[in-house]
Specification:
This protein is about 55% helix and about 10% strand. By secondary structure, the chain is of the alpha/beta class. It folds into six domains: about 80 residues, Orthogonal Bundle (Arc Repressor Mutant, subunit A), CATH 1.10.10.10; about 60 residues, Arc Repressor Mutant, subunit A; about 130 residues, Orthogonal Bundle (PTS-regulatory domain, PRD); about 100 residues, PRD domain (PTS-regulatory domain, PRD), CATH 1.10.1790; about 100 residues, Response regulator (Rossmann fold); about 170 residues, Mannitol-specific EII, Chain A (3-Layer(aba) Sandwich), CATH 3.40.930.10. A hairpin with a 5-residue loop joins β13 and β14. It starts with a helix and ends with a helix.
Amino acid sequence: MYISARERKILEFLITRDEGATVKVIAEALSVSARTIHRDLKGVEDILKEYGLQLHKKSGIGIQITGDQEAKEKLELFMFNLAHNEYTPEERQIIILSELLEATEPVKLLALANDMNVTIATISHDLDKVEERLHPFELTVLRKRGYGVEIIGSETAKRRAMSKLIYENINEFDLVSLLKETIQKKASKTVDTITERLLGLVNKKKILIIEKQVEQIKKDLPYTIADSAYIGLVIHLALAIERIEQGELIKFDDEHLKSLSESKEFKLAEKIVTGLEEVFQLEIPRGEIGYITMHLMGAKIRKSPDDLFEESALQVGMLAQKLIQFVSKEIQFDLTNDPSLFQGLVAHLRPALYRLKQKMGISNPLLSRIETDYRDLFVVLEKGVREIFPDMTVPKEEIAYLVMHFASALINKEETKELKALVVCSSGIGTSKILSTKLAREIPGLKTESASLFELDRIAKDDFDLIISTVGLNNYNHDYLLVSPLLSNHEIARVKKHLLEKKGIRKIKRDREQKVNKNISSEDFIYQIDKIQRYASAISKLLNQYNMLKITERLSVSDALEVLIKPLADKGSVSEINGVVQTLLDREKTGGLGIPGTSLALYHTKSDLINEISFTIARLSQPITVNGMDGSKVGMDTILLMLSPLDTTEESLEVLSNISSLIIRDKQSINVFQNGSENEILDLMAMECKELYKSKSEI
């Protein structure tokens, strides 16, 4: 049976959507006109008849495939194993690009034309489009008569292009399934899909071996890696092994490599490389360790309050607050007091800024949808990014992720706690947040938790009333609803209908009553009480330790810090003054601590010479010039000193983290810390701690 490329695309689009889709939605997805779709539907209907299926058309709902589920699966299997006689232009360009990137010598135009059953003129036109795709990677296409076609550029750039090509064009769940060794071939027949072509860039067996090596070092990382970044790292390593075996080596700047070599990520990258060298029996150049290190550094999901004591935390916090202030002013809606937005932005920006500086790039499959659905907010963020990050080229993919954070904050009007849904997302923190808040807004009583694809098998599904996913969960044996992260009105209706059908209105009410009256176990109650007490203890210590000193004589930073720490040592909060001072000065060498645009500097550290958390302030009558967080010079007349034991509770770190974000929250809070009296600052901190305690003390 002959199936044209567009008929195949329409069938692939509809076969996975039980609810169907309108002609307009199909046309937008395939980048053609509605008239073209109408014209192709006749051929689609003929194909469906071969399998005893029908094309059901209903006004207001759209088009859907109806019929026996077994027949649908047979059609799906046929399309999966279909040797493509015809590719769409987009597919041809992807195939050409993958073959040229993989090739170690020029490829003949005739070979490409024969491979895809088109003319040389068509291939030539496709190459123009391919070259456009390569521009962002600083790669070019060389075409010579009698010589062939090849891609010109560095091995590093080729690797980046390969990674992006794979990540953008392969279903993410398929990749995760492959990494988890659960992928199953649906037939033994040779498959010629785009996915298979692209995975041809790397050996599947190698992917599984590499994934096991990466899995071994995950436990040694002090932070979580996002699913998407984990996949990206494995793909990078698989490509690296393939290219090294072909003799294609990357060049890495020696100075940059030296600067990375002291990081904990570098040590873990060395561990990965040692394992890979043993498994594959080959020598991996030291430059590859540098690139693996960069992947690890750019892959962090930052959620822990411990982040305050990492280099660059406050610098990123300042940038996040500036962006929030800019957007708030532009949209005439104050978001500056939204701690969830602030923390989410900092968590996203830290690895994002590193990726941007290293030109590592990022994929965002939701870009076109976000640009369309949040057009005004997208324009505001584009403008804001240009102003806040003037020295960086920030791609639209990254801006789209930022839009999702702000959109999530704007629609998150109330928190609801009755029904419970598990949200499965893999496109990043912003994706899950925007979906969760939209669900909470649209369905009162719905509480959501997020899970990554890798965590799914370890989660107790019975704890949730509903599982909602933004990606197809192949080989998953539980009921779930597949939705887009932006959650259309039609999808909202499906979620509501599913909840009502599953539990019934009366049962929902009864469950709510049972949850209200249900006694928690004594073990859980004791755990929660202990946790609340730890928050109370941390807040009490911080506020009772708080002190403001005035220093009238001209002192160096070192001497001023000694003056600040001495009262803490007298109380037993610090064991050794000089050691803590030296730790603070060493910390300052790694990056400025002055807060740009203010006369404040935040000196903070963790040390085994510190016994209790504390926050103290020194007002200097003689300002000292120090390096700012952004590299500028800051005339410091106020030292903010935040100290923590090396091994302290998570609750204590969260209290300190909240105070650190309070300092730079908005102009008003900056002014209080900069010019306020001792009691005014204490009142502001007490108010912040009170809100934190209230949010944590509900059982």
